[in-house]
Amino acid sequence: MGVTVRAHRLGAVYGSQQRLFDVSFEVQPHEVVGVLGTNGAGKTTLFHRLLGALPGPGTAWVAGYRGSNRAPSPHRVGAVLDSLTAHPGLRARYLLASWCQSLGLPQRRVDELLETVGLSTLEGRRVGQLSLGMRQRLALAMALAPQPRLLVLDEPTNGLDPLGIRWINSVIIDFAAHGGAVLLSSHHLSQLDHLAQRVLLIDAGRLVTDEPMHDFKLSAGPLTHRVACSRASDLQEQLVRRGAHVLRTSTDELLVTGCQVNELAHLAHDYGGIIRLLAPEGASLETSFHRHLDHHRRSAA
Prior knowledge:
Blueprint: E1 5-14, E2 17-27, E3 32-36, H1 43-50, E4 59-62, E5 65-67, E6 77-80, H2 92-102, H3 108-116, H4 132-144, E7 150-154, H5 162-177, E8 181-185, H6 189-195, E9 198-203, E10 206-212, H7 213-218, E11 224-229, H8 232-241, E12 245-250, E13 253-257, H9 261-271, E14 275-281, H10 285-300
Keywords: ATP-binding, Nucleotide-binding, Transport
Protein name: ABC transporter ATP-binding protein
GO molecular function: ATP binding
């Protein structure tokens, strides 16, 4: 089916200032792409630019539509960019039904969507009576309504409890499994670690890196190993002498970075006493995120 998103040297202008610079990337069908960055880095600006809500240089081919400063068809792209804004007196079901009608969808789609997002018991409740989490679910129902090819989700777990986060993860996985593509930002990095196959890291409006998740975590720095032994102090002393970075996590456990596994094994055998554990410590997305960002900012300084 080809690429779902192809962005070429995208920039975005907000007021009189340019907030996004020369961002290029692609998103394939079946792919969930995590968009990382600190507050104000340009993640939401990128989403608004892709959807034609902000002007700027560059071009974006989005779900079969090629344009520069116009919005792609709502039949092809569903988006949750902000907490749902609607008149608090409107009935939630009416809001969803009106949206479906504007898209030319049959009214039975309303019941299907409410069931999908877990709001089938809404009855006559008004928007103003909904919790933040319920408004997020309703916004997602509106995004999913036309069965789009692309979902753009900016912090979709805001206001959701742990069960709600698990639920939205399952919705995203199912959407991608059926051929959809997802652009997803979230401050819950564990969510992105679980869902995303690729990472776009944005800082100060520029694309820092575009990598598969596995490569992003590995390229952030040397692998860390966890060692548990009866003579942790002696082993730590020897490792520090050889230039390794050692973090003592308990009386008998060390986290070791900057030492090849073969050398570490020999040192543990010679100085560590009884070895209970020697294993690689999986690189976390959070650690990798901070390392990439620090390296980029030092290089740019």
